[in-house]
Amino acid sequence: MFFRDQSEMLPARAAPITEVGIVGWLRINLFSSYPNSALTLVSLTLLLLVVPPFIDWVLIKAQFSGDTGEACSGIGACWAWVDQRLGQFFYGFYPAEAHWRVNVTAVLLVPAILYVLVDNLPGAKFGRWFSYVYPLLAAYLLVGGFGLEVISSDKFGGFMLNMIVGLTGIVLSLPIGVLLALGRQSRLPVIRLFSIAFIEAVRGVPLITLLFVAIVLLQLFLPPEVSLDQLLRVIIMVTLFASAYMAEVVRGGLQAIPKGQIEGAQAVGLGYWQTMRLIVLPQALRISIPGIVNTFIGLFKDTTLVIIIGLFDLLGHARLLQTNPDWIGDVDHEAYLFSAAVFFLVCFLMSRYSVSLEKQLSKDRH
Amino acid sequence: MIALTRPGLSCAVFAAFVLPAMVGTAQAATLDDIRAADELKCGINTGLAGFANTDDAGNWVGFDVDYCKALAAAVLGDSGKVQYVSLTGKNRFPALQAGEIEVLARNTTWTLSRDVDLGLTFVGVNYYDGQGFIGPKSLGISSAGELDGASVCIQTGTTTELNLADFFRTNNITYEPVPIETNSEARAAYEAERCDVYTSDASGLAATRATFDNPNDHVILPEIISKEPLGPLVRHGDDQWADIARWVLNALISAEELGVTQANVEALAQTDGGSDNPEIQRMLGSAGSMGKMLGLDADWAARAIKAVGNYGEIFARHLGPDTRLGLERGLNALYTDGGILYSPPFR
Questions:
Q1: pLDDT tens digits, residue range A323-341?
Q2: Kind and range of the H or E element at B252?
Q3: Are residues B82 and B186 in the same domain?
Q4: Which residue in the set A85, A87, A325 is minimally distant from B323, CB to CB?
Q5: Which of A28, A195, A280, B310 satisfies CB 3.0 to 4.6 Å to A183 for a cystine?
C-alpha cells in the first residue's frame, strides 16, 4: 500500500489565478457564464459609446467663460453662465446683501441635522436642543424681524426654496403621518373615519391640483384683506400631501408588528401611548425606513412643482436662464443638467443615509 | 405663449362667476390701494425671451416689465416700486380677478371672451403678434398653403393649437401634429427634424430662428394665420384705474410719434424753454391739466418716459434688431412708418 506521509503538511500554495486578484474578480463578477460575459461586453460597448463623448461634451470641449451665449461654440457644453447665474440658482431673488443670512442658515443646518441623525456625537444633549430650536432660528434668519430687515417670501427662490419647502415638509410630514397611521387603526370611529378620509382624499389628487387649490381657489374664497403667504400655502400643501403617503408607509410597518406584543404591553399595564411609543413605533418605523426615505425623496423632488404657481425654484431659474435673450438656445441642456446634478446629489445623500441607518439598526437588533 | 388650456379656462370661468359677488366692494379705488401700499403689483410672464426675464443681477427686465415700470413711475413716482408677480398661463386671470395684482402685462391676447366673459378690461395693444410657420429652406416651400401632409411641431394647450386646426380645415389640407410641451422643447424637436415645420407666434419664431446655428437655412413663411394683439389688462369695475393704465401705454406710443425720448424728456417738459408743440406740452404737463383728469399729478407721463423711454426705445432695447432676438417692428411700427401702432391724441 502506498501511504502519504501525514507527519508533514504540504506547503500552502497560492490560490489559482482564476480565483483571486483582478482576474479572479473579473471572472467571478463579470464573466461567470456565457450570458454574463455577453452582457458585460454589451454594457462595456455601450459605456464606451456614451461616456467618452459625454465627457468630451461636458468638460473638454465646453466653454467656461463669456458674457452671453454667443461665446459658446455649440460643439461643447456652455457653462459660461455659471459664474453670473449661480447666485440666482441658489438664492433666487433674495437680496445679495442678505445672502449671508442664507449662508448662516445653511451652515447651521449641518449640526442641526447631524445631531438628529447621528448618535454619540460630542455634546449630544445640547446638540439635540439646538436641533429643536433650529427651525425657529432658520425662520428668523430667513424672514427677518427683530432687528433684521424683513424679506418677504416672494424673494425666496432657487435651490434655497427647494430646501426650505422640502425640509419643512420632511420634518412635519413624519409626525403627522405617524398620527394619521395610528388614527387609521384607531378604535374610535370619528378619528378612524377622519384619518381614512384625509388619506384617501389627499392621495387621490395630484399634488399640482392641491397647489392650484392653495394658490388659485383659496384666494377666491378668502376675503381680499386676508392673505395667507404664498410660500406658506405651498409648504402646507406639500406637507399634507407627503403626510398622507407617509401614513400609508407607516401603516405598513404597524401591521407587521404581531398583535401579541400589544397584548403583552397591555398585560404589563402600559397605556395606549406608552405601548405605541415604547413597543410598537420603534419597531414599525425601523421596518418602514426604506419607504419613509422613499417618500422623503419623492417629496423633495416634488418641490420643483412650485414653478406652476409662479415661484422660482432651482428648476425655475434654470428655465429663466433658458429663456433669457442672452442665452436662449445655447443652454437648453446645460441648465437642466446642472439642476439634475444638484438634485441627484441631495437625493443620493438621503438614500445613502437610509442604507446606513438600516445597517446600524439591524446591528442593534441582532 | 398664449396658453389657454381647458383647466385654465374653467378656473377662469369659475372665477368669473364667483368673483363679482365677492370683490365688488374691494376694487373701487385701485389707485388708492396702490398708493397706500406704495407698490404696484404687476403680473408678468414666468420667463419669455424679450418680454419678461431676469438679468444676471436677478432683476426683471423685458418689454412687458418696462410697461410695469412706466406705470409705477407715473403713479408712484418711482419705477422701482413694482412687485413683480410671475404668472403662468393658467393662473394669470384668477390672480388679476382676485386682486393679487393690479395690472397684468403678460403678453396676453385680447379676445372677446377674455374681455367680456372674464370681467377684464384690456387697456390697449402693446404688441401686435400673429401665428406663423418656420421651416427649413431645403423643403422648398414658399407658402403655408403648400404644407399638405406636413408634420407640424406645436406647443400644446395654447391658442396656437386651435388656430392651426382652423387654418388647415379652412384650407382643406391635412397635417400631422407633433405636440410638444414647452417652447424650448419644440425648438429642439424642430432642430432634430422631428417635424417639417414649427408653428408659434411670429415674434417667437423670429427669436427662435436667431438662435439656430445657420439662421439663413430656415424661412418664416409669409402667412400669418391668426391675430394675436397682446396688451396689458386690468379688472372690470375701476374705470379710473383702467384709464391710467391705458394712457400710460398711449403716452409711451405718443412719445415716440412726437419724438420725446428718455434723453430729451426732461428738457422738453420744462415750462420755460421746453417744447413748443402743444400736444407735447399737454402730455408732459407743462400745459393743460391732463394729469389732474386722471387723478395723477402733472408730470405723470414725463416720469414714465424718463423711466423707460418711449415705445420705440423699449422695443429696441428688448426685442429690436440690436438684440439677439432681432425682431423687426413690422406691424408694431407707428402708423406713420407703415405699421398700425396708433395712439389717440392727448387733447
A1: 888 888 788 889 999 999 9
A2: helix B239-258
A3: no
A4: A325
A5: A195
User: Which pLDDT does position B260 carry in this prediction?
Assistant: 96
Half-sphere exposure of A135 (CA within 13 A, CB side): 10
B23 contacts in chain A (CB < 8 Å): 224
Helix (H, G, I), strand (E, B) or coil at B39: coil
Q: Give the separation between CA A115 and CA A131, rounded to whole angstroms.
A: 7
Which CATH number do you get for residue B171?
3.40.190.10
Same domain flag for B145 and B211: yes
A208 touches chain B (CB under 8 A): no
The answer to whether the Cβ–Cβ distance between B91 and A212 falls below 8 Å is yes
Q: How many CB atoms lie within 10 A of CB A221?
A: 10
Query: How remote is the C-alpha of B305 from its chain's centroid?
Result: 18
Q: What is the pLDDT of residue A330?
A: 81
| CATH of residue A311 | 1.10.3720.10
Nearest to B88 among A70, A92, A308 (CB): A308
Q: Per the domain annotation, does B200 fall within a domain?
A: yes
> What is the dihedral sign for C-alpha A284, A286, A291, A296?
positive
In contact, B106 and B215? CB cutoff 8 Å:
no
The pLDDT tens digits of the residues spanning A81-97 come to 888 889 899 999 998 88
Answer whether residue B1 is part of any domain. no
A residues 137-196 closer than 8 Å to B (CB) = 154
Tell me the three state secondary structure of residue B56: coil
**Within a domain: A132:** no
Residues 6+ apart with CB under 8 A from A132: none
CB-based contact A220 B18, cutoff 8 Å: yes
Q: What is the pTM of this model?
A: 0.82
Given an 8 Å threshold on Cβ–Cβ distance, is A319 in contact with B46? yes
Containing structural domain, residue B183: 131-226
**Nearest Cβ partner for B47 among A219, A323, A330:** A323
**A52-59 contacts, C-beta under 8 A, 24 or more apart:** A58/A337
A224 interaction partners in chain B (CB closer than 8 Å): 22-23, 26, 98-99
The answer to whether residue A229 neighbours chain B at the CB level (below 8 Å) is no
Domain residues for A211? 152-365
**Which neighbouring-strand residues pair with B129?**
B228
Tens-digit pLDDT string for chain B (347 aa): 444 444 444 444 444 444 444 444 444 589 999 999 999 999 999 888 889 999 888 899 999 999 999 999 999 999 999 999 998 877 889 889 888 899 999 989 898 989 999 999 999 999 999 999 999 988 888 888 888 889 999 887 677 888 899 999 999 999 999 988 777 778 888 888 899 999 988 887 877 787 777 878 888 888 888 988 999 999 999 999 999 999 999 999 999 999 999 999 999 999 888 889 999 999 999 988 999 999 999 999 999 999 999 999 999 999 988 888 888 898 999 999 999 999 999 98
DSSP code string of A111-164: HHHHHHH-SS-TTHHHHHHHHHHHHHHHHHHHH-BTTBPP--GGG--HHHHHHH
Our CA-based measurement puts residue A68 at a distance from the nearest CA of chain B, in whole angstroms, of: 10
CA B231 from centre of chain: 4
A115 found inside a domain: no
Alpha carbon of A83: minimum distance to chain B alpha carbons (Å): 10
Nearest to A325 among B56, B91, B324 (CB): B324
